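Subgroup meeting minutes
Present: P.N., E.W., G.H.
Scribe: E.W.

1. P.N. recapped why we're keeping a running log of single-chain structure predictions: easier to compare across weeks, and new members can see raw inputs and outputs side by side.
2. G.H. added today's entry (938 aa).
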Amino acid sequence: MIFADSRGACLYWGPDRIAIYNEGFAVSCEGAHPFLMGHGFAEAFPELSANIDPVFQHASTTGQAVNVDNIQLFVNRNNYLEEAYFIGQFIPVRGEDGEVAGFYNTVLESTTQVIFERRRQVTDSISSILPHSIEQTLSTFARCLQANPYDITAMLLYTFDDHVHEEIDNLFLQSSIAVAESCGCYLGKANLETSQGGLVPLFRQARQAGRRVVLDLEDDTSSQYRGLFDGVTWRGFGERPRFIVICPLTVSGELLGFYVQGTNPRREYDDATERSIAEITARLELRWVESSSREQALMRQQLAERRANETENRLRSLAQNAPLGMYQIGLDRKIKWANDQFFDITGHDRSRSDMEHFREALAADERENDRKIMEDLLGGASRTVRDVRLCRMWEPSIHGKEGSDEHHAWILAVTFPLMENGEVTSLLGYVTDISRQKWAENVQSRNAALATDAKRRQEEFLDITSHELRNPLSAIIQLADSIIKSVETEREVVPDAWSKIINEIKDSASTILACATHQKRIIDDVLVLSRLDSQMLSISPAPARPADVVASTLKMFEGLAEKHKIELTSSREDGTQELRHIDRVSIDASRLMQILINLLGNAIKFTANEPTRNISIVHGIRMTMPSKFETRFGDLKWVSPVGPKQLTLAPLGSAGAREKLYVYYAVEDTGIGMSSDDMVRLFQRFSQAQSKTHITYGGSGLGLYICKELAQMQGGGIGVASRQSEGSVFVVFLETEAATASGQLEDQRGVTTTNLNTADGETYSDSPSTNSFSKGFPLGKSAAKREAASTEPEGYHVLLVEDNLINQRVLAGQLRKAKCTVTIANQGEEALAILEQSTYWKHDIIGNVSAEDGLKPISLDVVLMDVEMPVLDGVQCTRQIRLLQSRDVITGHVPIIATTANARQEQKDSIFAAGVDRVLVKPFTVDELMLSIRELIP
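Output recorded in log:
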């Protein structure tokens, strides 16, 4: 039975009660196991014999089982005599002679439950303390602790007053248990900051740590404190505990005092003991705060009562002389009281108290609403705040100004119910004359509307100017490009007599193209300047590769460089190992490209006629702002001020701020160079190095000024170094941070693209291999291969939607020369009709084309959609196409490239929002268009 019993069980057999027990019983008698096995009870448990012998005797005498419930026993285990409680049975077992020969004992230890309940009763009694004064509360708290002498063998409770001078005692003993005044740990008062006696050093330690300090009296490191507890009359078992716990009492970071407790000497200091002490201190802190709040409330109440009479007279005087009108309305709907200002502001007759007469002072359309509001308030509604127009007129003191004529007077009326026992007894309120504010709001609204309208008209003017300038430029550039390509294609098959004429035609077309490109740069500079002046230019950082921006910029000038036999090179300066691995940074690539275009264009312009024609772009990344920059022309001269003006780095997808970095680009040429005096005027608006520079080299004097502004808007700066007849170097740096994005560049719409679109219209390719622009590689060597690749047959079928007949004819011709099939629509409705005849249309549902008609649907590849068109414009047409796709009338995704002369970012964003895949800003070349088509269509 013993070894089959799932409980702890033991058989005590014979007169010596020899023990035989199972594994479960071995756990309960840990201190006596394994000695107990085969030995008598009294031999193994000498400390328990006195308590258990009567149980054995009773069971033997009566022959009945004896139940024990939570019997307290002290078991020698864990190397000390431990307080324990057990639930069990002693069942007499009879031998062969019928007499009781032994006892079958089952046991279950209940120590944890008994001690938990004992401690819980203390915390419950603390929780039930009613709010009184702080002294009463702390005294009651001490009485609650008296109920558990076993776990709280001694106690000290101190209060702390931080309002006294630091050199005066601020720590006061409030109550104690079992600690006499003669004990070393007993201090009636002390200074927490300076005292060294008693437990004060431990108090400072607990305050600094912000948590309880546990003092182990048996530890050698605590020997200096052990003698402080000599003479303490320890409660419970009368033994000195091993552990003393010091707890700081705090609320919202404010120190209230300290609680010191001696623990149970016959129990370990375990998690349960720690939780019990934490519960005691938490409940004490709560009761303490409640009592403090109650004391403060009583003090405030007494103070209020003392001052009530004085305050009432004072308030009456203030109300009577207040700058606003005050009033009280009774349940009879009459004015019970009002100050003079009420009558002055409203114009109400002082001799009349009825509200109906008061409403005659209000504008006619306000009266019914006022009556309804008053009835709602008398019915218990909450307070109302409203602007009320009066009958009387108000004239501003400003004469001869717009808006200075008479206006209706206005008041701000606040009315609220006065409640007693849940019932409304009267209405209180006040009125303020706000006629001047209403008049000012009126004037301000008119001014704001005028300013908004002026800005809108300014934006419209810039948009119209941009549109009207770019549209014809697009045709000019495409025609000139077409002439050059036609001449290149046909020059070998024409007679020699025509070759000179053809060369002249090519030269003329090249000149037209160069002039148009120059005109476009001037237009771009003027439009950027207009946006800078109007504060309409935005900076939008996004992940980008610095090398890609260089590559895209250099590709634009490849042909011009070859024409003037200029060698263009690019390279990256290797920095530290850490910076060498940074591939992407957060920059506005389009704005950076605008800067590089201006710098590179100037470098080519001033180098084209020199005997040595070399231009290089060196870029890199630094950890600090490049305040010094050495060049072959000497130290760089920075334009002042250098630093951020309005840059805010956009978040790049990961939490936390990144380390600030600086990306820089140096454009160096072997051009004509400049003197020190020339460099002073460089970065000013409408200013060039010399007054006659524009006559020889052209230009508007805006490019470098715009470069400076764009650099400073991005937290950076620009500088220059130069020598006459040797060349110049321009260095621009931008504030940035490392970007975590990988793969292709993502634009702000989240669409992966390889184009960098500037805010003012240019579209530049981001696609050349990084190997094409490796360190020191001349760009001209790969031009022929790329030109050959660009003229390969494409075989695309393009739906050209364009209302301008010139642009339509020119672009269609260019596309056909690029081996494309072109179908033309004059506006959006015609485009939809053509789509209905295409393979995109689901002909078994809707459409005029079907297999039964014997007509083959048109196989379109891409739609080239102009934005500004009559009848149905490009944005509306795109929305219709995407709607038909969502309804499964059009199957698959129709690739759409929008073309527009509207270059502002918000305009492009609205075009993207309609559902287009790409935006090309006019003017553009057919090569740029074909590049976009190849990127868009697999």
